[in-house]
């Protein structure tokens, strides 16, 4: 496959300069993590939406298959080199020998959104795992998933996560480790799945292949109870509980992100419509 690699220099010219964070993209250890603040890291450039095109529905085209304007690594100034443009899709190259020699990490679109409708297509590799984050905060030295709910991207047939959690709440399109996607209508690994995530006035809805499969409202006693029953509970992971229980911070907004979970994954036709 033909791949287009963006150099660090070209991204710096597009996004502006900044200091690249040294935090590794490794799972957080709740037992050893230090207390965190919900203050967002403001050391890195933000995208200018006026530079983006819109589609016929009035949605911003965040990724058109040829440009990575607006995208960069989480808490980084540039796009990590494991992320490439591959035949019109944004690809994370996971476990190949060549990929292991390059820089990884989660990727974000560098603009805060509050109420929106995000649409895209995803394709996961055999036994692959990835995710989509919304309302995330960039917190220095901390991973993206400590502050953001995750729309699971998974090969349900071959990845062990599908059999973990409770009632399938780690399968594709689920609110990871919290609410299972029902019905479970994911296409197998190697096939494209249509994704839509709607965030509106504190309610988040996950759609998979045209069907609403999850809905929840954050900032409520019910949301707090969901967190307490998950791996993000106050007892198991106090830092994550604090941030997720105040999802989006005071502004109730944040960035969207795609996960480096070490496996090949593709994203394409990424659009976002801002809702009032």
From TrEMBL:
Protein name: DUF1080 domain-containing protein
Example of a GO MF term: hydrolase activity
Recorded superkingdom: Bacteria
Keyword line: Signal
Keyword Signal: yes
InterPro entries documented for this protein: AL/BT2_dom
Pfam family membership, one: 3keto-disac_hyd
Domain 3-keto-alpha-glucoside-1,2-lyase/3-keto-2-hydroxy-glucal hydratase, first and last residues per copy: 62-273
Source organism of the structure: Rhinopithecimicrobium faecis
Record flagged with keyword Ubl conjugation: no
Signal peptide: 1-23
């Amino acid at each position: 496959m033909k791949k287009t690699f963006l150099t660090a220099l070209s991204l710096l010219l597009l996004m502006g300069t900044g200091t690249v964070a040294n935090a590794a993209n490794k799972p957080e250890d709740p037992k050893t993590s230090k207390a965190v603040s919900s203050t967002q890291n403001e050391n890195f450039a933000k995208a200018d939406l006026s530079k983006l095109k819109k589609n016929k529905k009035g949605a911003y085209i965040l990724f058109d298959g040829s440009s990575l304007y607006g995208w960069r690594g989480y808490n980084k100034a540039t796009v990590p080199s494991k992320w490439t443009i591959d035949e019109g899709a944004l690809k994370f190259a996971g476990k190949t020998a060549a990929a292991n020699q390059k820089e990884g990490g989660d990727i974000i679109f560098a603009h805060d959104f509050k109420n929106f409708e995000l649409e895209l297509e995803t394709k996961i590799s055999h036994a692959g795992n990835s995710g989509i984050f919304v309302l995330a905060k960039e917190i220095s030295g901390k991973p993206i998933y400590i502050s953001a709910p995750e729309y699971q991207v998974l090969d349900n047939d071959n990845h062990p996560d599908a059999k973990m959690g409770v009632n399938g709440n780690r399968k594709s399109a689920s609110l990871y480790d919290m609410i299972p996607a029902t019905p479970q209508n994911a296409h197998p690994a190697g096939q494209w799945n249509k994704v839509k995530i709607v965030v509106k006035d504190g309610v988040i809805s996950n759609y998979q292949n045209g069907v609403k499969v999850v809905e929840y409202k954050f900032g409520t006693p019910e949301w707090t109870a969901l967190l307490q029953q998950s791996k993000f509970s106050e007892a198991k992971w106090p830092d994550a509980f604090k941030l997720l229980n105040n999802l989006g911070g005071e502004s109730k907004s944040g960035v969207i992100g795609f996960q480096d979970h070490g496996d090949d994954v593709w994203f394409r036709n990424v659009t976002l419509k801002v809702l009032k």
